[in-house]
Request: fold
Amino acid sequence: MLAEHYCRDILSGKRQGADARILISLMGIPAISYEAILRLRILAYSLGLLYTKRLPKPVISVGNITAGGTGKTPIVELIARYCLDRGKRVAVLSRGYRGSAQGRPGIVSDGLNLLMSPDEAGDEPYMLAEKNPGLMVITGADRYAAGILAMERLKPDIFIMDDGFQHLRLYRDLNILLMDHERPLGNGRVLPAGLMREPRSEIKRADLIIYTRCESKDVFDHFPGIPYCTAFHDIADMVRAPGGETVPISSLSRKRGTAFAGIAEPDSFFAMLDKAGLDILEKIRFQDHCNYGEKEISKIISVSKSASADYLITTEKDSVKLSAYRQRLGKIYSSVLEVKIHDMNPLAVRLEKIICCGESK
Reply:
């Protein structure tokens, strides 16, 4: 787990030095092969050898060009709420990563009822469905097939494709690309020598870029010619797990905690806790999309006990996977993240076009 974050720091460009150069050199040859395969795939779509399919309702895609860690889920949630507030029936199409039902299309929520467990759906789809009444969530590796299932059974007005930038099989009416404004391309290399899922040239497919983790709206425009917004994530509330009452952050100000996270960028979560003024004694990093078991739970309890911490705190994504261990973990909170966009207009204008397009179909 530490090795995963160590390698990610190198591939993102955070860590420099001889060890970084050696690792990147070792990964150089497979990266060349991987990029060649990517370019052939992209060429096949452009020549019509592979087909892009279109759903009968508008599709908004939210995705990355780098592997993980740009805060997709809160942005998907923000867009979903915007459309729901306009009276639209909204369905999120998710791959359902690491859910036991991954692969075949399945309905996590019909907008009224949760129909899958976190283990079946995956942490992100389940969290979206649980937090947002009225939002329909469908999983499936083939997002077109998942969309057809939704059309047949749920009749949505608008689709949001989560993590869809590379899913060229499904046509999108609005293609939103999320990028970390500090390191938008990591070290600039494709996997496995870097974090890039595709060559830099494919950024041109984006209709809008949202630069995340921007405390200021004034940032360097990395890709002139593509409209952009800037956004940052902050902790809005704390929820006493499991599914308990919401409490203000200030209620923890005189207590000491242990924080843990199994996400791509745990340090960004820990930084938000520090910014909120919480006294965090220990910070535990697990692998991204960690499936918590006895080993992880024992470590959390042991570290927290040794530090004499008063409480545990984790992310919403982690919290949905801990129901079997609530009693053992004791006093535990999940942080409710809120995304804030400095200037909503570039995004709002494009969402309004999608909403109007959906009304005309």
User: Anything to note?
Assistant: The CA atoms of residues 206 and 343 lie 18 Å apart. The longest helix spans residues 28-46. The mean pLDDT is 90. The first strand starts at residue 59 and ends at 64.
